[in-house]
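User: tokens in, sequence out, please.
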């Protein structure tokens, strides 16, 4: 491969990486909106555990 072909390959790889990062960020944003953050998930897990313990008593 000559210098021009290597440069074009690098540009293509950069575009692909940028596209993949964009898709990842979009997916993470949608997941955060639908499922909430880690603190919300931890609180819900703890609350569900407490509710289950109270029902057993």
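Assistant: Sequence out:
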């Amino acid at each position: 491969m000559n210098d021009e072909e290597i440069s074009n390959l690098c540009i293509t790889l950069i575009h692909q990486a940028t596209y993949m990062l964009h898709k990842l960020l979009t997916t993470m944003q949608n997941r955060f909106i639908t499922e909430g953050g880690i603190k919300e998930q931890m609180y819900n897990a703890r609350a569900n555990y407490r509710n289950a313990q109270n029902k057993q008593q």
